[in-house]
């Protein structure tokens, strides 16, 4: 083990922050650390929009499902998959850009995820904490309009950052045997491992909520996946020029 691995293993979602501000130089440093992440074919397809406190931030909090920490966090960033600058690059060389490919959507989205994870790790290394906000996709068209996103750009998720004002336990992850396979995909023992893991997760929730919530991982997932998952996403992405072929 080393300090980097210890930091990674200590990750928790932080939703309560002190009033201590984060200066812009620190935000710039975190975003530069994000830029250092791996990027598919040097495509660099992530744009970050920092939204300051005010009416626009309050609107994003409401659109994300009334998550109050979106409005109150010292820093709120929106990570956007952005292929528009690539259109500009093609225009600069009189090249006709081919758009709408599913692969372009995947590489741009993955670039955002890698970029954002670097930002989070860098923030945690400075004693900050944060939480990702996928709820922005609840009303993704409204979010895009608010942020004035053009075609070939879409908001992947947000990120709240600040000085932690809580100290939650780390959430238990799936057993290594479930996620690390050798040579081939073998899930013959997964049910057994997940059953044991369910007990750990149930105890985690019970302890965290003072007995108000007792739910296993498999119960949580099965309850979630019997519902529609933002069916508005596909037509919106088509409108923005993604996943057309």
TrEMBL record:
<comment type="similarity">
    <text>Belongs to the flavin oxidoreductase frp family.</text>
</comment>
<dbReference type="GO" id="GO:0052873">
    <property type="term" value="F:FMN reductase (NADPH) activity"/>
</dbReference>
<dbReference type="InterPro" id="IPR000415">
    <property type="entry name" value="Nitroreductase-like"/>
</dbReference>
<dbReference type="Pfam" id="PF00881">
    <property type="entry name" value="Nitroreductase"/>
</dbReference>
<feature type="domain" description="Nitroreductase">
    <location>
        <begin position="10"/>
        <end position="163"/>
    </location>
</feature>
<keyword id="KW-0285">Flavoprotein</keyword>
<dbReference type="InterPro" id="IPR016446">
    <property type="entry name" value="Flavin_OxRdtase_Frp"/>
</dbReference>
<keyword id="KW-0521">NADP</keyword>
<keyword id="KW-0560">Oxidoreductase</keyword>
<protein>
    <submittedName>
        <fullName>Oxygen-insensitive NADPH nitroreductase</fullName>
        <ecNumber>1.5.1.38</ecNumber>
    </submittedName>
</protein>
<dbReference type="InterPro" id="IPR029479">
    <property type="entry name" value="Nitroreductase"/>
</dbReference>
<keyword id="KW-0288">FMN</keyword>
């Amino acid at each position: 083990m080393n300090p980097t691995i210890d930091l990674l293993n200590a990750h928790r979602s932080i939703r309560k922050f002190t009033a201590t501000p984060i200066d812009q130089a620190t935000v710039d440093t975190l975003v530069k650390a994000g830029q250092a992440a791996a990027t598919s074919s040097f495509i660099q397809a992530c744009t970050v929009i920092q939204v300051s406190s005010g009416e626009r931030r309050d609107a994003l909090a409401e659109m994300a499902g009334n998550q109050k920490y979106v409005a109150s966090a010292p820093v709120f960033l929106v990570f956007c998959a952005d292929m528009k600058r690539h259109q500009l690059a093609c225009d600069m060389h009189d090249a006709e850009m081919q758009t709408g490919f599913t692969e372009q959507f995947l590489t741009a989205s993955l670039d955002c995820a890698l970029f954002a994870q670097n930002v989070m790790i860098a923030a945690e290394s400075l004693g900050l904490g944060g939480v990702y906000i996928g709820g922005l996709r609840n009303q993704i068209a409204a979010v895009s309009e608010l942020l004035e996103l053009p075609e070939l750009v879409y908001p992947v998720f947000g990120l709240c950052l600040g000085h932690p004002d809580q100290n939650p336990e780390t959430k238990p992850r799936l057993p290594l045997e479930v996620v690390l396979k050798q040579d081939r995909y073998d899930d013959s023992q997964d049910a057994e491992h997940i059953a044991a893991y369910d007990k750990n997760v149930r105890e985690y929730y019970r302890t965290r909520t003072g007995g108000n919530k007792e739910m296993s991982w498999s119960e949580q997932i099965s309850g979630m996946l019997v519902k529609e998952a933002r069916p508005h996403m596909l037509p919106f992405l088509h409108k923005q020029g993604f996943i057309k072929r």
